[in-house]
Amino acid sequence: MNIYLESFKTFFKIGIFTLGGGYAMIPLIEEEVVNKHRWVSKDEMLDLIAIAQSCPGVFAINIATFIGYKLKKERGAIATALGTALPSFLIILAIAIFFKQFEDNRIVAAIFRGIRPAVVALIAVPTFNLGKRAKLNKFTIWIPVACALAIWALGVSPIYIILIAGVAGYLYGRFQKV
């Protein structure tokens, strides 16, 4: 099968079946891209997730673009980005067209109340898996906890966290070589 069509279909499927945004997509992307198609390794996936989180824009589009680019440069990036974005666009378009009819529907409201906790779980699981793959231990677990608390409780900009983490990682790497 054509790699452009295959990568488009893969990311379209991921996009259409994922609720909760880009982070909730991580398990599906990993299953399809790492385990099933073997387009990237587990270590590359971890690196791509870190890069996609650090870049401006929508996480799901970023990671799809990086994977597509790795596969087939610009055309691959376009195929995977479109595959990821198109389902959301079509769903939002349908909601916009029909929203007034369901705006006050108790059943629809109840469905969304039920979906919210599941979305939290869909985001939490990849977070824990990333922590395992990042080889967090009793000496390093404080780093993501402190970063999350700084952002949540103190209102520190994630940009500063990323910059500080990058400088600290660089210095740590220099220190380890000595």
Number of helices: 7
Average per-residue pLDDT, rounded, comes to: 87
β-strand number: 0
Unreliable parts: none
Taken in chain order, the helices and strands follow as HHHHHHH
As a percent range, the share of helical residues equals: over 70%
> What profile does the largest beta sheet have?
none
Tell me the distance between the termini. 50 Å
Radius of gyration: 19 Å
- Shape descriptor reads globular
SSE-based structural type: mainly alpha
Beta-strand residue percentage? under 5%
In words, what does this structure look like?
It is a single chain. The chain is mainly alpha-helical and about 180 residues long. The protein is about 80% helix and about 0% strand. It contains seven helices and no strands. Helix 1 packs antiparallel against helix 2, helix 2 packs across helix 5 and helix 3 packs across helix 4. The longest helix is centred in the middle third of the chain and has 44 residues. The relative contact order is 0.11. The model has no long low-confidence stretch (mean pLDDT about 85).
